[in-house]
UniProtKB/TrEMBL annotation:
Allows the formation of correctly charged Asn-tRNA(Asn) or Gln-tRNA(Gln) through the transamidation of misacylated Asp-tRNA(Asn) or Glu-tRNA(Gln) in organisms which lack either or both of asparaginyl-tRNA or glutaminyl-tRNA synthetases. The reaction takes place in the presence of glutamine and ATP through an activated phospho-Asp-tRNA(Asn) or phospho-Glu-tRNA(Gln). It catalyses: L-glutamyl-tRNA(Gln) + L-glutamine + ATP + H2O = L-glutaminyl-tRNA(Gln) + L-glutamate + ADP + phosphate + H(+); L-aspartyl-tRNA(Asn) + L-glutamine + ATP + H2O = L-asparaginyl-tRNA(Asn) + L-glutamate + ADP + phosphate + 2 H(+). Its EC number is 6.3.5.-. GO terms for molecular function: asparaginyl-tRNA synthase (glutamine-hydrolyzing) activity; ATP binding; glutaminyl-tRNA synthase (glutamine-hydrolyzing) activity; transferase activity. SMART domains: GatB_Yqey. Keywords: ATP-binding, Ligase, Nucleotide-binding, Protein biosynthesis, Transferase. InterPro entries: Asn/Gln-tRNA_amidoTrfase_suB/E, Asn/Gln-tRNA_Trfase_suB/E_cat, Asn/Gln_amidotransferase, Asn/Gln_tRNA_amidoTrase-B-like, GatB, GatB_Yqey_C_2, Gln-tRNA_amidoTrfase_suB_CS, Gln_synth/guanido_kin_cat_dom. This is Aspartyl/glutamyl-tRNA(Asn/Gln) amidotransferase subunit B.
């Protein structure tokens, strides 16, 4: 019997929100900026220009690693990764190969399952290609404003087993990065880019990379689609091809972008213009001391103090505005007999607006809970045949009466409460 185990790893690229670029003094901001205005000889890759690492970007990468439980390497260096593409003016990207800033680490899902991390490293972003029609001709333009922006890559072990797990992992990771205030993690602006490596089976003779996933929902859908596509092939006795695929949200399916018969050879070698970095225990401790309170600790606090289910607690913590609102209105809610769990659910499900005070909104919502007994009695009186059916044992007919209550209250009544009251009144 063929044993098919989903084996998924994620690669997450995050642009750091530093003021300047990774190896030069140009502003790192590049979104909606006039093309090629934030450039200099270093980020344009002109001959003779020398890169100088951005200390803040190095510190922030270590901070990300420490927040994720990684080990900061006491010696680390930059390497040149060679490939040719018009958005890479030097013909190589300064990245990190065998001595990344951080190794290992982990992130726990709400179920308690641990997703292990392989590494967290720092590199520079590439320029951006813009395809346009100019004077009736299709042309490709290059904007180097993004060239050299600090980019952190976070790589997981293949510990993820489904699209839902990948989505939860990404949400938790984003919450941590936002708490650290190192990136806005905005996928629309491209400051967070996601890639999933998906394979199945025991031998793992192949790996499919799914790229350009620009929302967590698409990651989930693309992974689930890939798993079922690969399962079909494997069950038919075929091995899926080693390839890079894209995702089309319209058809909810992945498609081939290019085949990868062999691993690419980037001819990595140490960047000769930047000396290796050495960190002491004191340096690392100083960065650790700067770590703010992390989402996991905040969520645990909510679970302990308000008895919230862990999943609900992490959803609240994921957005600062939600958490603040919850904390500010939990007392008001309790005076209105709305439990912390109920309040948290109302916030998560957008049932109350975070822009308005809680008291009024909760009053309206709790009023909805009480159903006028007069209406219940009237519905019972108006529908003797349905009542007879219910009394004869056909309890599903109560749904019709609930519908009548909803109609008479113009949808204002709470359907669950109405059902309970009807059954009570009919003594069934
Ligand atoms: Zn520059």
């Amino acid at each position: 019997m063929l044993k098919l185990t989903p084996t998924i790893g994620m690669e997450v690229h995050v642009e750091l929100a530093t003021a300047s670029k990774m190896f030069c003094g140009c502003p790192a901001e590049h979104f909606a900026v006039k093309p090629n205005t934030h450039t200099c000889p270093v980020c344009l890759g002109l001959p003779g220009a020398l890169p100088v690492p951005n200390k803040k970007a190095v510190d922030w990468t270590m901070m990300i690693g420490l927040a994720l439980g990684s080990t900061v390497n006491k010696t680390s260096k930059f390497d040149r990764k060679h490939y040719f593409y018009p958005d890479l003016p030097k013909g190589f990207q300064i990245s990190q190969y065998d001595e990344p800033l951080c190794r290992g680490g982990q992130l726990a899902l709400d179920s308690g399952k641990i997703i292990n991390l392989t590494r967290v490293h720092l590199e520079e972003d590439t320029g951006k290609l813009i395809h346009q029609t100019v004077g009736g001709k299709r042309v490709s333009l290059v904007d180097f404003n993004r060239s050299g922006v600090p980019l952190v890559e976070i790589v997981t072990e293949p510990d993820i087993a489904s699209g839902a797990e990948a989505k939860e992992f990404l949400k938790k990771l984003t919450a941590i990065l936002r708490t650290l205030k190192v990136s806005d993690c905005d996928m629309e602006k491209g400051s967070m880019r996601l890639e999933a490596n998906v394979s199945m089976g025991e031998s793992l003779a192949y790996k499919v990379e799914v790229k350009n996933l620009n929302s967590f929902r698409f990651v989930e859908q693309a992974i689930d689609y890939e798993l079922s596509r690969q399962e079909k092939l494997l069950k038919a006795g075929k091995t899926p091809r080693q390839e890079t695929r894209g995702y089309d949200p319209k058809t909810r399916s992945t498609f081939v972008q290019r085949y990868k018969e062999t691993a690419e050879d980037y001819r990595y070698f140490p960047e000769p213009d930047i000396p290796p970095m050495v960190f002491s225990d004191k340096d690392i401790a100083a960065i650790r001391a700067k770590l703010p309170r992390l989402p996991e600790a905040k969520a645990k606090d909510l679970v302990d103090r308000f008895n919230l289910p862990p999943k609900l607690a992490s959803l609240l913590v994921a957005k600062a505005s939600r958490l603040t609102y919850f904390k500010n209105s939990v007392k008001t809610a309790q005076t209105l007999k709305v439990s912390p769990e109920k309040l948290a659910n109302l916030i998560i499900n957008h049932k109350i607006s975070l822009d308005k005070p809680a008291a009024e909104q909760l009053k309206t919502l709790t009023q909805k809970q009480t159903v006028d007994l007069g209406i219940i009695d009237q519905v019972i009186k108006d529908n003797p045949d349905v009542v007879a059916k219910i009394k004869a044992g056909k309890s599903s007919a109560v749904a019709f009466l609930v519908g009548q209550v909803m109609r008479l209250t113009r949808g204002q009544a709470d359907a669950v409460a109405a059902r309970k009251l009807l059954l009570k009144r009919l003594q069934v």
